[in-house]
Write a structure and sequence with these properties.
By secondary structure, the protein is an all-beta fold. 2% of the residues lie in helices and 60% in strands. The chain has one helix spanning 162-166, and strands at residues 2-9, 12-18, 23-29, 33-39, 45-51, 62-73, 78-86, 88-95, 98-105, 111-114, 121-127, 138-147, 153-161, 171-178, 181-185, 190-193, 198-201, 206-209. A five-stranded mixed beta sheet has the order 7-12-14-15-18, with no helix packed on it. It is elongated and about 70 Å long.
Length: 213
């Protein structure tokens, strides 16, 4: 067999080997190791692409983003962050404009419960990357966080619905109301006038963080 492609993904590795002109073996080495054989048509090629975050059958509906360090926001102020989130990957067959998925591989498949078991959310857990490798598949997010509360507030985690990633959005805004209540806006803009401490925002396309942040 001839090695066609080898991708290092942290402690994981994806290998594509040529068996003959039409047959390829795809091997993934990570939490588990498995191989899959794929038969190519004459015009098809194998590609490895980053993909939006894969949900398993446990019903995760959000991404739990664990910040590398706590961010303190003063009363009536805002902070802006740039986050680098490791993405999942998929192996596809490409024939012109046609793309057929062979397999999806969720990276760092961890889960976290946000809130109480009966009313909380099951989330995919993602740790923010402080350093990234050249070929690391990452999703870049801009975060603008406002503190409306009268005291300084720490920001240590962010909960984002899957819709944000499905629509390939890149900017979220967080408005902290008190110690246990914040809005996460993933579409609508938040207008702020810091001189008077007044905020204006719409009630559409938001997620409510009500179990701390």
């Amino acid at each position: 067999m001839h090695l066609e492609l080898s991708i290092e993904l942290g402690d994981e590795q994806l290998i594509v080997e040529k068996v003959d002109n039409k047959l390829r073996r795809i091997t993934y080495k990570g939490r588990i190791t498995f191989s899959k054989y794929v038969l190519l048509d004459s015009n098809e090629q194998i590609r490895v692409l980053p993909t939006m975050f894969i949900s398993s059958d446990v019903g995760a509906d959000c991404i739990y983003i664990d910040l590398a360090k706590s961010i303190i926001i003063s009363p009536g102020k805002k902070v802006e962050l740039s986050l680098h989130i490791p993405m999942d990957i998929k192996v596809v067959l490409v024939d012109g404009d046609k793309e057929t998925e062979i397999i999806s591989i969720p990276r760092e498949l961890k889960y976290a419960l946000y809130g109480l078991p009966d009313i909380g959310h099951i989330c995919r857990y993602k740790k923010v990357l402080e350093e990234t490798k050249k070929d690391e598949p990452i999703y870049n997010i801009k975060v603008t966080a406002y503190n409306r509360f009268e005291e300084p507030m720490p920001l240590t985690k962010i909960i984002i619905p899957h819709e944000f990633f499905k629509e390939k959005l890149t900017h979220i805004q967080i408005v902290i109301e008190n110690r246990n209540y914040a809005y996460v806006f993933y579409k609508e803009e938040v207008s702020d006038v810091f001189g008077s401490g007044w905020f204006a925002f719409r009630n559409k396309n938001k997620f409510i963080m009500s179990h701390g942040f």
